[in-house]
Structures are given as structure tokens and as C-alpha cells.
Amino acid sequence: MIPKTGNENARSVMTWGRREFLKSGLVLGAGIASSTGLAFSGRDTASAKKVLVGAHGWVYAAPMPNYDYTPKLEQIFSDLQYAGIDAFELMDVVLHRDNAVERLGALSQKYSLPILGTSYGADMWDRTKHSAILEDAELVITRLAKLGGRTFGTSVGRAPAPKTEEQLDAQAELLRKIIALGKAHGVVLNLHNHTYEVEMVCTI
Q1: What is the pLDDT of residue 11?
Q2: Were both Cys, which of 33, 79, 126, 174 would link to 51 (CB 3.0–4.6 Å)?
Q3: How many CB atoms lie within 10 A of CB 1?
Q4: Are 77 and 108 in contact (CB under 8 A)?
């Protein structure tokens, strides 16, 4: 069911519980994904491949200190399983915990919810931070690979001013190193851009 747009119905939507919201969103998202896949494939429903629907943890992380939703992990896995989500994309903050692999692996198995990958962000434009970022990325990628994750959603960081050519070159240089690092562990880097990474300053 898709709610109407009137104020009365809008107020009723706000009263939905977390599980009802997740389940309704899944129905809409899966429907869009399935119809889009069929449109591009040109095949009928019976022969079309299943579209993988994954979920990212941001909605749970936003209100948490340092965006660390580790205390909510059991709830998150339960919610996503209930909603019919196929896989879970982590945020790297939860992979920094010492017992991350054991805890996440146990929850993944308990709720039959695979780990799809993780998002990851750092100031890759800043060459002075490259050594620390690469070391950290290796830690996260290694732990992610142990959990069966295969995507590394990368954000390259916000600079205090429009990035210079040298900063963009530095950013690209580090991305290439992280791509190679991921490949060695069966993890593929993909871009996880935010508005600040594509902002441009125009002058007339």
C-alpha cells in the first residue's frame, strides 16, 4: 500500500513503527528494482535474475556518538531480516571494534543475513594522511573479507576549499593503492559519493 499525500495520511505515516516502515520500503524498492531489471534485460519475469536488495546502516548510525551503531547491531540484523533485505552494508566504524569479525559473523549467521560490504571515508586528497589511511583501510578490508563482504564503498573526503590538481592527483594515487589492496582480498572498491565530493565553485 502506498499512502496518500494528504495531511491526515501524512500524520498516520509518522505513527508507523520501525518494522512497518522497513517492510513498506522494501516492497516499493524491490518493485522498482525488479521492474528496472526487466526493462533493461528484455526478458520475461520467469527467466529474469533476482535483484539483490541490500541496506546500509546510516539510519541507525546518525543519532549515535561517532556514528558507532555497534550497540544496535542485534536490532539492525533483526529489522533487516524482518524486512526481507538480502544483505547488509556496514559502516567501517563497526569493523574497528576488536571483536568485530566474531560478533558480526555470529549475527550474520543467526539472522541468515550476509554482509555485502562496508562504506568507508577518509581525506584521501591529503597526502600527509596517506600512510595512516592505507593502514586503516587494510585493517577494515581484511576484516570485511573474513566476513564474506565484497564491496568497499569509498568516500574521498571533504577539503576546506575546492580541491587543487595536486590534491586530486593525491586522491587518485591513494585510490589506486586501495583498489589493489581490495583486489588482493577479493573486495571491489566502488564510489560512495556525498554532495561535498562533487560540489564545484563557479565564478563569472
Answers
A1: 36
A2: 33
A3: 5
A4: yes
Residues spanned by the domain of 31: 1-49
Contacts of residue 75, defined as CB under 8 A and 6 or more positions apart, other chains included, come to 60
Q: Is the pLDDT of residue 27 over 50?
A: no
With a cut of 50, say whether residue 3 has pLDDT above it.
Answer: no
User: DSSP 3-state assignment of 167?
Assistant: helix
By C-alpha distance, which of 86, 101, 90, 99 is closest to 68?
90
Q: Are residues 79 and 10 in the same domain?
A: no
Residue 66 and residue 31 share a domain:
no
Residues 6 or more apart from 194 whose CB is under 8 A from it? 155, 158
Residue 185 lies in a domain: yes
Query: Taking the model in full, what pTM does it have?
Result: 0.73
How wide is the angle at C-alpha 92 spanned by C-alphas 180 and 82, nearest 5°? 120
Residue 192 inside a domain? The answer is yes
Q: Is residue 159 part of a domain?
A: yes
pLDDT tens for 80-99 read 999 999 999 999 999 999 99
Q: Do 75 and 170 share a structural domain?
A: yes
